[in-house]
Write a structure and sequence with these properties.
By secondary structure, the protein is of the alpha/beta class. The chain is built from 22 helices and 13 strands. A 6-stranded parallel β-sheet has the order 3-2-6-7-1-8, with helices on both faces. A 5-stranded parallel β-sheet has the order 11-10-9-12-13, sandwiched between helices. Helix 17 runs parallel beside helix 19.
Length: 589
Amino acid sequence: MDKERPDPDKILRDIEREEEKKSRGRLKIFFGYAAGVGKTYAMLKAAHSLMENNIDVVIGYLEPHARPETMKMAQGLETIPAKQVDYNGIKLKEMDIDAVLKRRPQVVLLDEYAHTNAEGSRHQKRYQDVEEILKAGISVYTTVNVQHIESLFDIVASITGIFMKERIPDSAFDMADEVQLVDLEPEDLLQRLKEGKVYREEQASRAMEHFFTIEKLTALREIALRRTADRVNLVTERTKKEAGGEYYTEEKILVGISASPSNPKIIRTAARMAKAFGGLLVGLYVETPNAEKRSQEDKKRLKENIHLAEQLGAKLETVCGDDIPFLIAEYARNSGISKIVTGRSVPSRSFFHKPTFTDKLAAYAPDIDIYIIPDSKMKKEKQKLRKNMDHTMTIKNMLSAFVCLLLSTVIGFIFYEMKFGDTNIITVYILGVMITAIITSSRTISFLQSAASVVIFNYFFTDPRFSLDTYDPGYPVTFVISFIAALITSNIALKMKTQAGELAKLAYRTKIILDTNQLLQNGKTIEEIGNTSEKLRANLLRSISHDLRTPLTSICGNADMLLQGKLNEARKEKVYSYIYDDSFWLLNL
């Protein structure tokens, strides 16, 4: 009987989803593979059809194309005047979102969906303007080319040699209620270009020499057709899921998040794979003990890569440790990951041919498919990382190591006078190396002290004394074993110290998260929830790290669920500004 009883929470969510759909405007994208295929023309033609059916439609913003056919098609349509924005002494024209919301038409036309707004605008990107307009219940018609879609950036750039700065996340494209592919044969597009229907004569000549070649246009057209087909499959699966039909995908694709310059390419490749397989994309960041020693450039790049993964729909996860291949493999095994996407490692040129990152990952996860993406910059980044991680060879650390070595030697003399055996004396030196490892957190210093301890032990405490010679043929073996023991012990001490610090930080952050969730559950007014958000900000500022991303998102998600039943729509907006605006900024630190 319980299995047959409807889930009340699911029913409530379905009702809320339907209400949101009813109040939300519809988004239609006119999609093309290159400038000049006729996207804006098709959009304006569709607008005239709407007018003939007594639908209130206006032009919110139309890119000033120098195309007579397009501008002629715009005649007869009401246009909301663009606002002027002063940027470095230059007057720029931008869509006036407030005027659109005030005019409140049924449909508004907004050209160039991927446009970046001038500094000082309400939103950074036009697709964010579109989102606000849709929430206001106004439908939007817009245009975009295939090279502006984030996950296709690397593929398009490799074809055209042009790195497009204005891009939209795939989610902004996939959320469209309708995508109309505006297609034109490449030969016909080139003919239009020659006739001056796309660019002026001088611009057209340059374009045909570089971007507009038959090979490039054919490739771009194929990508646009494939991306449109992928979206159809995505909409079909989403509709089936929302309708309560059976929906299951066994594909879970994991991509590693790092500070590598080539990481965006790997993330985009994984995102495309996830869409092609209809699977879930998981972005995993491994926070190593040396993460805080990264350069500011690496930290900034890491933040950008995390943001990119979020834009492409990845579910972000964080684990802590220093054996990155092992941690990725363990997470993949425990989370049911079916495919791992990673960069190609540069093989070691040493005599011993040390296993690369991908070699280790394949050994740790033999049953999981691993896709390796070319990563030519990996070697340079590893060298830079080693340099930036610093060997902590400071005067203070070297002085600490010297004091430990001196104390070990003094204690060794005391033990020698007390007729203690060699084993006890060498143990004192190993203890000294361990203490140095804990105090200095430097593997370089620990290595040097291990070597120095063996030399000093040989010089002062083996026969003949005060000489590096030895009578006992077994002593060289003892020296080697002592050196290895001291080195291993120091490394274990370093790891234990680092892990203890990470566990302490994790425990502190977990306490903050639990306390905040409890306070959010008890909060009933805007002021109480606002105070909770301020406390969260103050506490987390003492311990900022990227592993807060997932739990903090969870906090805000839980807050959202709690507020659904406590506040009406008018008050929710203000409360969200407390929680989301005051808390999510931490995710970008």
